[in-house]
Amino acid sequence: MLDAAMVGAVLASVVAAASTLLIASLGELVAERAGTLNLGVEGMMIVGAAVGYATGYSSGSLLLGTLAAVLAGTALSLVFATLAIWLAANQVASGLATTILGLGLAGLIGAPFVGTRLDAAPELQVPGLTDLPLLGEALFGQNAFVYASLALLALVSWGLARTRAGLVIRAVGESHAAAHALGHPVRRIRTLAVMFGGACAGLAGAHLSLAYTPFWASDMTSGRGWIALALVVFSAWKPLWLLAGAYLFGAVSILQLHVQGFGFGIPPQLLSALPYLATVVALVLISALKRGQGAPASLGVPFVPDR
Amino acid sequence: MRKILSLALGLAAGAALAGAGALPASAAEKLKAAWVYVGPVGDFGYSYQHDQGRKAVEKAFGDKVETTFVENVQEGPDAERVIEQLARAGNKLIFTTSFGFMEPTLKVAKRFPNVHFEHATGYKRAANVATYNAKFHEGRYILGQIAAKMSKAGTVGYIASFPIPEVISGIDSFMLGAQSVKPDMKVKIVWVNSWFDPAKEADAAKALIDQGADIIAQHTDSPAAMQAAEQRGVKAFGQSSDMIQFGPKAQLTAIVDDWAPYYVQRVQEQLDGKWSSTDTWDGLKEGVVHMADYTNMPDDVKRMAEETEAAIKSGALHPFKGPVYKQDGTLMVKEGEVMSDKDILSLNWYVKGIDDKVPGQ
After folding, report:
1. Domain limits of chain B?
2. pLDDT band at residue B44, thresholds of 50, 70 and 90?
3. CATH class of A18-289
4. Which residue of B has its CA nearest to A101?
C-alpha cells in the first residue's frame, strides 16, 4: 500500500501545500512584530491571486504576473495602513474592511478571466537529485514559489533577530512610545512592515493562481488567509515555529485525503477538521513550553504621537 | 476562522443588498427576481451554470424583469438572512440554488406568503415554495461506464463534497454504470467537505492519483481536479460546466447543467400569473442535464456512451434498474423494477461493490 514513490509524492504535496501558508504568514508576522494586526490577509491574498492571474494571462509571463500580484497585495495593504496606522482607526475593523474590499475587487478584476487557464509555473528538475527516493521531489522538484517561501523564511528570521532594522521593528512593536522617544518614526516603520505583509500575501495569492491551481475563480483562496493569520498567533510570533506550524498544517491536510482514499472508515468530517485540531494542539503545546513568549506588547494599539 | 470569514461575507452580502434596496423603484409591472448561490459565480462550475440561467432570463425578458443575485452564501442561518433581505427588497420570485438552503427558504417563505420561492435540489415544498432539480445521476451512469472501459488500473478516484443524497446517488449511479461494464471496478472516495475549494480539490485529485487511480470523477464545483489530472496525465470527468479547456487531453466528457430553459419558463409563468408550487425533476431527456462531447476515448467507447445516453433519454435504460443490492447484499430494487424518484432523492446507502463507508453511518 505504501511504497517509496508514493511517500515521496505525498511529501512533495505537503511541501507545496504548506508554502502558500508560510509565505502569507511570514508577511503577517513582520507586520505584527511591528505592532499592527492586519486581518486583511485573505483580501490581499485574493487580490494578489486575481491580479497575478490577469497579468500572467494577458502578458504570457508568469514573472510579470507574480510581480503584479506582489504590487497589488502591497497596494491593498496601503489602504489598510492609511486607515489603521495614519488615521488610527480600529485595526480589527480596518482589517475586516480590507478583506471584504479585497474579495469584491478580486471578483471584479478576475471576472473577464473566468473559464480560462494557464500553464502552471514550472517545477525544478535537477537530474539525479529530483529522482532521489523519498525527499527528492519534495526538496528538488518544486516550483519557484516554494523556494521563495524558504528564502523568505531565512530572510525574516535572520532579519528580525540579527539586523538593526529587525531590532527597530521589534522595538516599535513592543513599546511604540519608547521607540518614538528614541526618535524612530513609528508610523512609517509600521507602514513598511504592513507593506511587507501585503507583498507576501500577494505572492501567496500568485502561488495559488499561477502554480497551484493555475486558473482564476473567485474566492479561490477559500480562507487560507485566515489560516495564515492563526498560524502567526500560534507560532508565538517566531518565524521558525511558523515553519513548523505551516508544514504540520500542510501535512495533516494532505494526509487526511490519503487516509480517506485508503478507506479506513474514519469519518471524513473528523479528518477535515484534523489539520486545524493538530495545528492548534501542537502550537498550544509549543507556546506553553516556552513561558513568557507572548504577543508584541503594542500589538493592535494604534500609535498617535501627541496623545 | 470560518466564522469570521462568513461574518465578513455576510457583511459584504448585506452591503450589496442594502445597495440593491436603495435603487429607485422601477415601473410597477417590472418583475424582480433573485438568485442565491452557494459559491461564487466565477467558480466555472455549479453556481456559474445557475448564473448562466439567470442571464438567459435577462436576455429573454429584457426590461420586463430585473434580476439580482447574491453569491457565496453560506448554507445555514446566514442564508436565511440573505433570503429574507431579498424578499424585503421586493423580489417576487426567489431561486435558492443549493441543498443547504432548504430550511432557510421554507422559514422565509412562511413570513412572505406573497413571494414565490424555488429551491433547487431539495424535497420540501409549500404553497409558495416549489422545488426543482436535475437528474445528474443519469449522466453519472454514463461516466461510470466510460470509466470502466478506460481505466487500466481498474480504480477510479472520486472527489465528493458532502454526504447528501444527491452526491451519494451520484456515486451509486456511477458505480452501477461501471459495474455494468466491469463488475469488479473499484472506487476510492475522498470527501473534501466543501463545494468549492480549488486548492483542496487539486490536493484530493493528486492524492487519488498517487494512490493509483487513473480516472478522476468529481462532485465539487471547480476545474482544479480536471487541471490536476491533465498535469499528471490521467483522465477525468468535468462537473457542471464543459471543462475541456482545463483538460484538453484529460477530459472524457462532462455533465453539464443547463438551467436556462427552466428559469425562462418559470419567470414566464410568474409574469402570466400562472406560477404554482411544482416539483420538477428533469434530466438528459429534457436537456437540463447534457453531456459534453465525448473526447480522448476510442470510437467503441464513444459509441457505447452515445448508446447509453440515447437509451436513458428514451427511457429504455434506468440507472437504478433492478436488481440493485446494498453494500451488505440486501436486495433494494427487485429484478424488473426501477427505484422510485422519491427513493433516489433520499438515497443514503452505497451499492454493493463500494469498499468504503457512507460518512456518519
Report:
1. 2-134, 136-256+289-345
2. confident
3. mainly alpha
4. B12
| Facing A258 at nearest CB: one of B15, B42, B207 | B207
> Tell me, which fold does domain B136-256+289-345 have in CATH?
Rossmann fold (3.40.50)
Q: What is the pLDDT of residues A210-253, one digit of tens each?
A: 999 999 988 899 999 999 999 998 888 999 999 999 999 999 99
Residues of chain A positioned with their CB less than 8 A from the CB of B359: 267-269
Taking CA B199 as the corner, what is the angle to CA B137 and CA A112, rounded to the nearest 5 degrees? 85
Question: Nearest 10 degrees: CA dihedral of B200, B202, B206, B209?
Answer: 120
Indicate yes or no: CB of A263 within 8 angstroms of CB of B188.
yes
In this structure, which CATH number among 3.60.110.10, 3.40.50.12780, 2.120.10.30, 3.40.50.2300 belongs to the domain B2-134? 3.40.50.2300
Encode A247-281: b = buried (16+ Cβ within 10 Å), e = exposed.
bbbbbbbbbbbbbbbebeeeebeebbebbbebbee
Asked if B209 and B179 touch (Cβ cutoff 8 Å), the reply is no
Query: Higher model confidence: residue B43 or residue B277?
Result: B277
Q: Chain B partners of A110 at a C-beta cutoff of 8 Å?
A: 42
A211 by Cβ neighbours in 10 Å (0-12 / 13-18 / 19+) ranks as: buried
- Residues of A whose CB is below 8 A from B48: 114
For the entire predicted model, the pTM comes to 0.86
How far is B232 from A269, CA to CA, in rounded Å?
Answer: 28
Smallest CA–CA distance, residue B355 to chain A, in Å, is 7
pLDDT band, residue B28 (cuts 50/70/90):
low
Parse chain A into domains and list their residue ranges: 18-289
- How close, in Å, is residue A178 to chain B by CA atoms? 34
What residue spans of B185-290 are helical by DSSP H?
Answer: 198-210, 224-232, 260-271
Instruction: Collect all residues of chain B within an 8 Å Cβ-Cβ radius of residue A268.
Output: 163, 190-191, 193, 359
Instruction: Give me the amino acid identity at B175.
Output: M
Residues of B in contact with A265 (CB under 8 A): 356-357
Nearest CA-CA partner of A66 in A217, A205, A224, A225: A205
pLDDT tens-digit readout, A106-118: 999 998 998 888 8
Which helix (H) or strand (E) segment holds residue B256: the answer is strand B251-257
Contact B245, B230 (CB under 8 A): no
Q: Which of B189, B211, B224 sits opposite A258 (nearest CB)?
A: B211
Closest residue in A to B15 (Cα–Cα): A100
